[in-house]
TrEMBL record:
Bias (Polar residues) ranges: 321-334
Species for this entry: Teratosphaeria destructans
Sequence intervals crossing the membrane: 12-33, 45-70, 99-116, 128-149, 169-194, 206-226, 246-268
Protein name: Integral membrane protein
Record-level GO cellular component terms: membrane
Species lineage: Eukaryota, Fungi, Dikarya, Ascomycota, Pezizomycotina
Subcellular location: Membrane
Compositionally biased intervals (Basic and acidic residues): 344-356
Membrane topology (UniProt): Multi-pass membrane protein
Domain Rhodopsin: from-to ranges: 29-269
Pfam families referenced in this protein's UniProt entry, alphabetically: Fung_rhodopsin
Positions of region (Disordered): 290-356
InterPro entries: Rhodopsin_dom_fungi (IPR049326), SAT4-like (IPR052337)
Keywords carried by this UniProt record: Membrane, Transmembrane, Transmembrane helix
Length: 356
């Protein structure tokens, strides 16, 4: 079969490349931000990197699907060509199914380890992380076993006419996604009690809660994905199953992005603050030029005194967090993640210790 793009295939190819690119950029920025803030790499970073690699498999499956006619109708092929393409497409679908469960589980475990870095001195939070990690691991094992043994013999998955039995494909996919949503909700809600008890303004607490809950966007994609999942053994397989793999790739890739966003909080905040600071300084210069047109040498108090100062301020602001944390006790600095809300954690820890 000559590989050429028809119908929706150019859009599917573009979606696969875009999703892989966005998640890759977010992961690169995460690692750069770790070095920039002076925070060392830990298991959460390595697990997220593994999740990034696993997400590529779901994007690659879209490209393989295009190769075998994904999104095209049955009548666009000869009968022999259609049977061959469907068989090859279902083989690729079967081989990639374990990657979905592995990718989502690894990302959640990475997030839980991130929570551990921040809140491990809070006893109930520590136990919450243990229990949630156990639930995620059990879900992973169940999903992987079901993916492997859903057909007996295995070859019946891509050869429906062969003797044997298979689970209902649609029921299997929806069950896996629905149970995944349960663990999503637990992981998202786990740090909320600590966030709301921080010694910070309500605006600050809302912004922090929003940073943690951004992963709810991935849960929304999971719900949409359930709606578009179809039986892989539909008579018009290549067309009927088009949207399911697309939403699966979107879910895993954007899960990587959402897991990276809390780490990038400091970077984003610094860039925004620097941008607004530049605008304010330009406004101040314009105001000064109006008030003192005959005194071009005049420098208002507190204004910039040199072209290198902005760069110095930017670098200092970005690297001041580890320095501030290091001035606290050793136990507080061990969990430092280089993000600006970490100092409030000490207040939460003090409250917890006082209650114990």
């Amino acid at each position: 079969m000559t590989w050429h793009l028809d119908g929706h295939q150019p859009g599917i190819l573009a979606a696969a490349i875009l999703l892989a690119s966005i998640s890759t950029v977010s992961t690169i920025l995460r690692w750069w931000c770790r070095r920039w803030t002076g925070v060392g790499f830990w298991f959460d970073d390595w697990l997220l990197l593994l999740g990034q690699v696993l997400s590529y498999a779901l994007c690659a499956q879209l490209i393989v699907g295009i190769r075998y006619g994904l999104s095209l109708h049955r009548d666009q092929f000869t009968p022999e060509e259609f049977e061959s393409n469907v068989s090859n497409f279902l083989k690729s679908l079967y081989s990639v199914e374990p990657f979905y469960a592995a990718c989502m589980s690894v990302i959640k475990l990475s997030i839980l380890l991130f929570y551990w870095r921040l809140f491990r001195s809070v006893r109930w939070m520590k136990w919450g992380i243990y229990i949630t990690a156990a639930l995620v691991t059990m879900w992973l094992i169940a999903a992987e076993v079901a993916a492997i043994i859903q057909c007996t013999p295995i070859s019946k998955f891509w050869n429906p006419e062969a003797p044997g039995t298979c689970l209902n494909g649609l029921t299997y996919f929806k069950s896996i996604t629905a149970t995944n949503l349960v663990t999503d909700a637990i992981v998202l809600c786990l740090p909320m009690p600590l966030v709301w008890r921080l010694n910070a303004s309500i605006t600050r607490r809302i912004s922090l809660a929003a940073g943690f809950l951004i992963g709810g966007f991935v849960s929304l994609i999971s719900i949409i994905r359930i709606e578009y999942l179809n039986n892989p053994h539909d008579p018009d397989t290549l067309y009927a199953t088009t949207k399911g793999p697309i939403w699966t790739a979107a879910e895993t890739s954007l899960a990587v992005v959402c897991a990276n966003l809390p780490i990038l909080y400091t970077l984003i905040k610094t860039i925004v603050a620097h941008a607004f600071g530049t605008v304010r300084r330009r406004s101040a210069h314009a105001h000064t030029a109006t008030r003192y047109p005959s005194r071009p040498w005049y420098t208002p108090p507190g204004d910039s005194i040199g072209p290198g100062e902005d760069t110095e301020r930017f670098a200092t602001r970005g690297r001041s967090i580890p320095t501030q944390v290091s001035q606290r006790s050793h136990s507080a600095s061990e969990g430092s993640d280089g993000i600006t809300y970490y100092p409030e954690k000490a207040h939460v820890q003090a409250e917890e210790k006082g209650r114990r």
